[in-house]
Amino acid sequence: MAAFAIVDLETTGNSSSKQDRIIEIGIVLIKEKKIVKEFSTLVYPEREIPPFISSLTGIDDEDVIGAPLFSEIAQEVYRLFNDVYIVAHNVEFDLGFLNAELKKCGLPALTNPIIDTVEMARILIPSSESFKLGQLAEQMNLGHDRPHRALSDAQVTGELLLCLLDRLKELPERTLTQLLTVTEKLKSQMRPFIEEAIDQARYSVKGIQHYTILHGIAVRKLTPGKKEKPAITEDFSGWLTHIFEGEKGLKGTIPSFETRAGQREMSESIYRALTEPQHALIEAGAGTGKSIAYLLSALYYSIKNNRRIVVSTYTTSLQNQLLHEEVPKLERLFDEPIRVELFKGKAHYISLAHFSYELENSHLDNYDEALAKAIILVWLTQTYTGDIEEIQLPSNGQQFWHKISAEQSVKHQKDENYFYAIAEEKAAFADVIITNHSLLSLDLISDQPQLPSYEKVIIDEAHQFTNVASRYFGVQLNYKELQSQLTHLNDLLSDRFLSNGSTTIKTKLEQSRGAVEQAKEELSQLSKFIYHSIKRNRPSSKTKSDIGRVQYTLLHSKDAAMISTASEMIERFLSKILLIKRSIRTISDQFIASPPTEPIAILVSRLEQYENVCLTIVEQLGKYFKEESLEEAKWVEIEGSGHQHSFYMFSEPVNLDELLRKKLLTSKQSIVFTSATLTTAQSFEFIRKTVGLKKEDKVIEKVIPSPYKFDQNARLMIPNDFPNVREDQEEFIYSVSEAIYSLSQVTKGRMLVLFTSYDMLKKTYYLLKEMINPEEYMIFGQGISSGSRDRLKKNFQAFDQSILLGTSSFWEGVDIPGDDLSCLMIVRLPFQPPGQPVQSIREQVIKKEGKNPFMDYSLPEAIIRFRQGFGRLIRSSTDRGIVFVCDQRIMEARYGKYFISSIPDIPVTYDSTTNLIKQAQKWL
C-alpha cells in the first residue's frame, strides 16, 4: 500500500527564481487511507510579505517575525518525504519551492514519485466547472475550514486524493487500459494505481451495464428513444391561468415564485404571434421572467400543433440556464417529460472514430495531447451529450479537439458521429430546440440545412442577432488560422498510414507537402506586405478595435496600388492551394480504391475535409480584393503589438436587412425577436429596419416594463466639471481615474467601469495602479489582467474591495447581482468610434438614401448599448446602486435626452464631482 506526503505551501509570490520565499508549510502523511502524521509551521521569509498575499492568506509580517528560518526546519521536513509519493494541488509549484529551499540548505533535491491532484481531478472529474482546491472541496463536500492556510489546504488535498483514487476504481476496464497508454506523458505517476484498478475491474461486473463499446472505447450507454408527447386539453388562456395562479402551477414548482403581470402578457403576445402567424418584437425589462414566458408559449403551441419551435440565444450561459434551470422547472408541470433539446453545430461533438484513431498514435503525444486524451477517455464514460462545452481541455487541447470533432467527418455516418447523430435524433423529435445565433445564421446561409426543419423561431437577446448574422454573411480570415490549417495538413500528409501507400500516393504526398510549404511561404510574404502597408499609411485611415487591433478600411479609390499588389500575391498563394486540393483528391481516390480499413477511412475523411477547407479559402480569399461595392464593408486588422505580421481580413454586408428579409422573414412563418433592449425613444423603428421588417409589415409590438423599483434602487449621477475629452484626453483620463478612486472609497470597491475605447481603459488602469495602494483595492482590467471575461468577473467577485475595468463584451451579458456591485461607471456614451469600417460604409449608404446617419443609425445603436450597460447594475429586486456617467454630453448635447429617456425613470443629479461623491455616500 502506497504512502503519501501531501504538501502545501504559502509563499510571498509565484516564483522561487525571483527570490520569492515560503511563509508557511503544511505536510500531511497518509498511509492505508489514514492520516498518520501532520506537520505545520510558519516560516520567516527574510523579506516583506506583499499586501496581496496577506489579503489572501491572512499572514502578515508580524505573524512571521518569531517563526523559524527554513534552514532550521529543513532536516525535519526532508525526513518526512522518505519513501512516499509527494502529492500537492499543483505539485510543480510546491515541489519547485521546496527544492529551491533545500538546495540553499545543501540538501539534495526531492526526486520522489509525484501526484498532482489538479491534473488528477481534471482527468477524473472532467466536467467540473473549476479545479481550484476550494471549489473542488465544496463540490465534493470536503471540509475546508481555513482556505489558503498550508495545513488546512494539505488536509483537504489529502481527502481529495483519496476520493480521486476511489473514482479511478469505478472506471470500466477498457478505459483504465487505454489510460495506461497516455500516462507516461503526464506529471502524476498514476500507473501503479491504474494497474491496481484494472486488476479489480477485471473480476467485477459492477456498473458494466452502463457502458457500451464503440470503436474500441467505453462510452456511457445512451437510449435516446422517442419520448411520449405530453397532453394538454385546456385552451391557452385557461392553461396559463393554471400555470401562473394554480397551486399545481409554477407556485408549486418554484418556491419563491411571484405572479408578474408582464410575464403572462409576454406569453400571450408570443402565442398570438405563433398562431396568427406573424412576426413580433417584444421588449421585456429586467425581472420580467422572459425565459419562462417564451418557453411556455413555445411548448404549448408545439405540443398542441405538433410543430417544432426553435429558440435561439446569443450566450452559452443563457443556453445552459434555459436547459438546466428553466426547463426542469417547467417539466414538473406536465404529465410526461417535455421534449426540449439543445442542438449545436458538428464542431461541438466528438467523433469516436477519429478519437479512436488518435489513441492508436499516443506514443507521439506531447503533454497537452496526453492530458486531453485522458480527460476525454473518462468523460466519455460520463457524458450524455459528447459536447465539448462540458469539459475544459488544456491550453493546446483545442488543436487536438479539431482533429477529433464530428466536423472532421464529411460523410454522415451514425456510428462514426455517435453523439452528433443522437443530438440530431433528439432534435428531430423535440418540441422545442434551443440553439445559438451562430448556428441559426449558418443555417440561413448554408445550402445544406444545419437545423431540423422549422417555420417558427424565438430569437432571444435579439439586439445581438444582427451582429452575429453579419459575420456569417461576410468573410472572416486570419493569418494565424490559415497557417495553422496548413501546418495541420502537413502533419496529416506525413501520417505513417499514408506513407505506406502506392508509389503514386507517395509521389503525390511529396508534391503536396512541397506545395504546402510553398503556400505557407507565400502566405507569410502576403502577411508581411499587408502589415507594413497598413503600418505606413496615414493615421487618419486607421482606427482601433475594442481589443486594440489597428483597423484599416479598404477602398479602391485610395488603396489601388496596395490592392493590386496584394491581389497578385493572393493569386500565387491560391495557385498553391488549388494544387494542394487536386493532390488531395488524387490521394483520396487512390485510397478509396484500396481495401477498406478503419485507419484508411479516417484518413480519407480528413483529406476530404481539407479539400473542403481549400475550396473555402479559394472562394473567400479569391474574391476579397475584387471591385469594391457599397453593398459590403471590407477591412483588415493587424496586431498593434505581439505577433508580428499577423493580419485579419473581414467583410460584412452593409444591407443586412435585405438579406435577413429574404433568408429569414419571408421564408419563415413567425419570428419573435425579444430582448430587454429593443426600443430607442420608445420606438421599434430602428430594430425593424435592422432586421428587415418594412413599415407595411403587420408586426406585433409590445413593451413590457421591468417590475423592479428603479426609482427607489438606483441613482444617475453626471459630473459637470470634467475636462473636455476632445481638448485634453490625458486630463479627462486623469479625472476619470480620480473619480473612480473617490467613488471606490464610498462604495468600498464593488465598481464596474465601462469604456468604449481599449486604449483609454489601458491608460486608466495604469494610472489607477499608481494612485491606489495595492493594500486597498484589487484592480482588474480587460485585456490587461489575464483570463476570460468570466474569469475576470469571478476574480472581481472573489475580493472584498475590487474594481473591474471592461470594454465591449462587459456592456452586456454580465450578471453581478447583490452587494458585489454597488456602482456602475460609464466613461463615454457608447457611440462607435469614428471611422469604424462597417459604420463608415453604412453611413455613406444612409446619406445616399437622403437620411441622417447620426439620427438614423449611430444614435439608436448607441442608445441600445447604453441601455445594456445600464442593465448591469440592477439584476434583482433588492439590488441598489449608482450609475455614474462621466460624459457631459448626456446633459449638454441635444441628443442627450434620448439616452436618459431610454432608461427607467430614476433621480438624476448633475453637479460637481465633489458634491456627487458626498451625495453618493449619503444615499448609499
TrEMBL record:
Record PROSITE patterns: HELICASE_ATP_BIND_2 (PS51193)
Enzyme Commission number(s) of this protein: 3.1.-.-
GO MF annotation: an example: DNA helicase activity
Positions of the Helicase ATP-binding domain: 249-516
Motif (DEAH box): 460-463
Family of the protein in this entry: Belongs to the helicase family. DinG subfamily. Type 2 sub-subfamily.
Known function: 3'-5' exonuclease.
Protein name: 3'-5' exonuclease DinG
